[in-house]
């Protein structure tokens, strides 16, 4: 799967994003993800990560702020933005009564992909994610890991420029997680942009080019792991050069809690 | 109370059942309870009037073959519906694994809990039947004396026998066709068992007497001449309902013995069956051939997906198309009355319109609310209105496929009735779909049976709209001018639903 995408300067630009429910879930968030970048969005439970991602995917409308996907204003022209975005949640939502191949055909139909291109991509993805032997079986008997892989294949079959992942590795076994990570890394190398939330900090540490830490709906730190370490050490003094992302993350969140 | 004892488990089950019932009645909002209670009281009073109108004249009935036949037919029909309900509950008990792991991993004797669960099914079935039967029994007691109180005892006996039969049948299916197929077969049988009996009687009446009334065949001279003597054991349930205490004691003893035997046989192995049932979903289903991707538009992809999901889910098909079973008698009537003039056709029009409205409501719920991958569809690069339109088209497509052949046959016999039916079907279908659209809320397709609970306004609006349009169509078949009034009432129902829908209220 060596699709190389034409370069776009900024895959995702978020500015002043606000979403309120009974409380403010996202509070003036600014975020920028470049093409060919793997961005991990971390934060404690209830920090506003999923709400942010759902707004980017077009599933929630923000109360204020702007979202631009590859230069397209996603709030003014959501259909054009959705054409180049893929969304995968932690709970894979697929159709039990369809086979993986039928599911991919349906997704390709929704995104208006021609049958020849869609079929070639589908076969490639099924093979890459080890789903080919199960391509003709209905998804109803699949394990959560297999369902997650089917959902991932569905997200990639229309060749998105921006992939939004909410806890994509939850419930995957080690082998499946490695397959998924490898597929995602390939997409980034091909020029795609990925923004992902995860509670598995090791994954963020290994895979992300940049990491954003969010708390109470606000971005409290952003940068490479090294930059985050420095930021946490400067303000907290509790982290060192060899600190893991977990140490750094906890230090940043603790600092934010104290400040609040 | 000793933890792990039968009583302890009974209290645990009673608490769960009570909370489940409360949640179902109030839609999960306790503050609604008072309103729900008031509504139930009003409905109960109304039902007593209906009961007086329907059975008041039977209060002083004496034991004769005609009365025993009428009562026995009603009891048999009610009991089949109770068996249907018990089978549905029993399948859920086997296949729901919410607390199965906890129970089987605990050091208590699980068969005690399973015995309680089977008994709970019997109690629940009887408890659901009593409120429905109570207005009729109360009227008979009020005007015919306390002897009719025996009917309450009969309901308990019927619940016990229904649960015993359901558990026996489900276990037999387990052994014969395996846990995977049992779920589907049991649920389909549960869905059609009661309807099949009514339809069978109607079809027999149509073929023999040219009338759709199911009571005709049971009251016919030919049947009454060949029924057993009134002292026969066959009539014991009917006699029990009429206050023959010996018959009641006999029916109760036999039913409870049947239930205890079923519990004694099945409870010790219930865990084994439940574990087998839980593992049944893991088996994969091979689909066979592999076809090439086809050129398709997003709208056609959505429509095709809806039809494929419906076609591949026999349980949903059985639930959704239950209404279609009721079309068999009118279809038979149409066939039989082909040369008999307009009377039968006037009867057909509302039946067709009513069935179309109900079917469209179920299908619209599946297509609009029962979307299993809502995020996928919502993130697709098509406007939301476009998705809704495609789904509505999918619903209308099924309605056309089901009703077009009937309308074509009707058009050959009476073009006017076919035209009125087609108009009625179109309006009833549109109204039912619109109501589902206004009250849409995200749910899993597997929650189809519980869709009525999520919004009672939608459920009642849909039912009254279908009834209203069916009535308007029936009148329109005779006089277009007279049809204006029922059509207006139906339109008011639909407008009321729109006004009360969450989206309108929020706007």
Fold and architecture overview:
The complex is a heterodimer of chains A (260) and B (507). Chain A is α/β, with parallel strands linked by helices and 260 residues long. Chain A is built from nine helices and ten strands. In chain A, helix 3 (100-110) packs across helix 4 (115-128), helix 3 runs parallel beside helix 5 (144-156) and helix 8 crosses helix 9. Chain B has helices at residues 6-26, 33-55, 65-95, 100-105, 110-144, 150-209, 214-218, 221-225, 236-241, 245-280, 298-311, 314-320, 322-325, 328-336, 343-369, 374-378, 384-413, 415-438, 451-454, 456-478, 484-500, 502-506. The model of chain B has no long low-confidence stretch (mean pLDDT 81). In chain B, helix 1 (6-26) crosses helix 5 and helix 5 crosses helix 6 (150-209). By secondary structure, chain B is mainly alpha-helical. Classes of the chains: A alpha/beta (260), B mainly alpha (507). The A-B interface holds A 57-59, 79-83, 85-87, 89, 93-99, 101-102, 105-112, 114-116, 118-119, 122, 134-138, 140-142, 154 and B 281-290, 292-298, 300-302, 304-305, 308-309, 312-313, 372-383.
Offer a concise description of the structure:
Chain A is built from nine helices and ten strands.
Major sheet of chain B = none
* Classification by helices and strands of chain A: alpha/beta
Regions with little confidence, pLDDT below 50 for 5+ residues of chain B = none
Average residue-wise pLDDT of chain B: 81
N-to-C span of chain B: 53 Å
Which value, in Å, is the CA radius of gyration of chain B? 25 Å
Shape of chain A: globular
Average pLDDT of chain A, to the nearest integer? 86
Q: Based on DSSP secondary structure assignment, what is the total number of beta strands of chain A?
A: 10
Keywords for this entry:
heterodimer, A: 260 residues, alpha/beta, six-stranded mixed β-sheet, four-stranded antiparallel β-sheet, globular, B: 507 residues, mainly alpha, 22 helices, 78% helix
């Amino acid at each position: 799967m060596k699709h190389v995408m034409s370069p776009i300067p900024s895959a995702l630009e978020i500015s002043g994003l606000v979403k309120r429910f009974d409380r403010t879930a996202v509070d003036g968030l600014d975020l920028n993800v470049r093409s060919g970048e793997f961005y991990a969005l971390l934060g404690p439970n209830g920090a506003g990560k999923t709400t942010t991602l759902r707004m980017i995917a077009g599933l929630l409308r923000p109360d204020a702020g702007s979202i631009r996907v590859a230069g397209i204003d996603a709030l003014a022209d959501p259909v054009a933005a959705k054409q180049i975005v893929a969304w995968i949640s932690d709970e894979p939502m697929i159709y039990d009564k369809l086979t993986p191949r039928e599911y991919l055909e349906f997704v390709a139909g929704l995104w208006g992909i021609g049958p020849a291109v869609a079929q070639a991509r589908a076969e490639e993805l099924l093979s890459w994610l080890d789903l080919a032997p199960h391509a003709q079986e209905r998804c109803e008997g699949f394990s959560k890991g297999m369902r997650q892989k089917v959902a991932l294949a569905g997200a990639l079959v229309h060749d998105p420029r921006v992939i939004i992942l909410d806890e994509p590795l939850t419930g995957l076994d080690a082998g499946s997680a490695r397959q998924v990570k490898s597929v995602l890394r390939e997409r980034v190398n091909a020029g795609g942009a990925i923004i992902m939330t995860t509670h598995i900090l090791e994954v963020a540490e290994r895979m992300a080019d940049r990491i954003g830490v969010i708390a109470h709906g606000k971005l409290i730190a952003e940068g490479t792991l090294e930059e985050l370490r420095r930021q946490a050490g400067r303000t907290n003094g509790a982290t060192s050069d060899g600190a893991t992302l977990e140490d750094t993350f906890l230090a940043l969140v603790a600092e934010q809690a104290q400040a609040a | 109370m000793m933890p792990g004892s039968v009583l302890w488990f009974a209290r645990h089950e009673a608490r769960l059942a009570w909370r489940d019932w409360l949640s179902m009645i109030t839609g999960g909002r306790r503050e609604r309870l008072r309103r729900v209670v008031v509504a139930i009281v009003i409905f109960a009073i109304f039902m007593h009037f209906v009961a007086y109108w329907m059975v008041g004249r039977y209060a002083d009935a004496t034991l004769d073959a005609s009365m025993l036949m009428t009562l026995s037919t009603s009891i048999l029909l009610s009991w089949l519906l109770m068996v249907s309900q018990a089978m549905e509950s029993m399948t859920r008990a086997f296949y729901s694994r919410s607390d199965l792991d906890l129970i089987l991993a605990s050091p208590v004797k699980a068969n005690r809990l399973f015995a309680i669960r089977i008994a709970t099914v019997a109690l629940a079935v009887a408890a659901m039947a009593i409120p429905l039967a109570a207005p009729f029994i109360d009227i008979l007691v009020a005007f015919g004396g306390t002897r009719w109180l025996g009917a309450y005892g009969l309901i308990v006996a019927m619940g016990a026998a229904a649960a015993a039969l359901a558990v026996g049948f489900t276990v037999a299916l387990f052994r014969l066709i395996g846990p995977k197929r049992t779920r589907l077969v049991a649920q389909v049988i549960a869905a059609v068992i009661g309807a099949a009996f009514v339809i069978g009687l109607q079809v027999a009446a149509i073929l023999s007497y040219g009338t759709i009334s199911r009571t005709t065949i049971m009251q016919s001279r030919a049947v009454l001449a060949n029924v057993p003597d009134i002292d026969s054991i066959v009539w014991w349930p009917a006699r029990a309902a009429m206050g023959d205490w010996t018959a009641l004691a006999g029916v109760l003893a036999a039913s409870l013995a049947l239930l205890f035997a079923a519990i004694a046989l099945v409870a010790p192995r219930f865990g084994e069956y439940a574990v087998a049932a839980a593992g049944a979903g893991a088996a994969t289903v091979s689909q066979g051939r592999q076809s090439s991707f086809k050129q398709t538009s997003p709208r056609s992809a959505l429509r095709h997906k809806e039809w494929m999901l419906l076609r591949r889910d026999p349980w949903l098909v059985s639930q959704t198309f239950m209404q279609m079973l009721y079309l068999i008698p009118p279809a038979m009537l149409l066939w039989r009355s082909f040369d008999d003039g307009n009377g039968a056709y006037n009867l057909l029009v509302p039946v067709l319109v009513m069935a179309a409205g109900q079917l469209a409501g179920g299908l619209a719920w599946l297509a609009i609310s029962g979307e299993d991958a809502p995020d996928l569809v919502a993130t697709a690069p098509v406007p939301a209105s476009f998705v809704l339109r495609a789904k509505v088209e999918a619903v209308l497509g099924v309605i056309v496929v089901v009703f077009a052949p009937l309308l074509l046959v009707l058009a050959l016999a009476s073009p006017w009735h076919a035209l009125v039916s087609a108009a009625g079907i179109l309006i009833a279908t549109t109204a039912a779909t619109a109501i589902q659209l206004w009250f849409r809320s995200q749910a899993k397709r597997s929650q189809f049976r519980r869709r009525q609970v999520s919004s009672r306004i939608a459920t009642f609006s849909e039912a009254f709209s279908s009834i209203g349009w069916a009535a308007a169509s029936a009148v329109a078949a005779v006089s277009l001018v007279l049809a204006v009034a029922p059509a207006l009432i139906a339109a008011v129902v639909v407008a009321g639903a729109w006004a009360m829908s969450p989206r309108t209220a929020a706007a």
